[in-house]
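Worked example

This section walks through a single chain of length 115. The input is the sequence exactly as stored; nothing has been trimmed or padded.
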Amino acid sequence: QVQLVESGGGLVQPGGSLTLSCTASASIFSFVVMDWYRQAPGKQRELVAGITIAGLKNYADAVKGRFTISRDNARNMYLQMNSLKPEDTAVYYCHGRTPRNSENWGQGTQVTVSS
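Given that input, the structure is written out below as tokens.
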């Protein structure tokens, strides 16, 4: 199973920016789709942004225009987060789905938006 490791979380003030990284133990093209999810305390995990193997991207309405998902051609996926709001506070997870529908998750990275 391909391992996924997130990094880049932290504490940021409202209006600030962070870039999350997800590094895979093998090529990210092992996955047909890769996503960023987040889970805030007391809430369900929700999809933030996704990118398919073909490079098609989608975003949750709550982050459109503020977040950008991208990847390199090796082992890394990114989430550039701008104009952060307190409601963006959550644990952010990297996720990948293989052609055999195997679900791979990272351990999560905490993002806290607070003054």
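What to look for: The mean pLDDT is 96.
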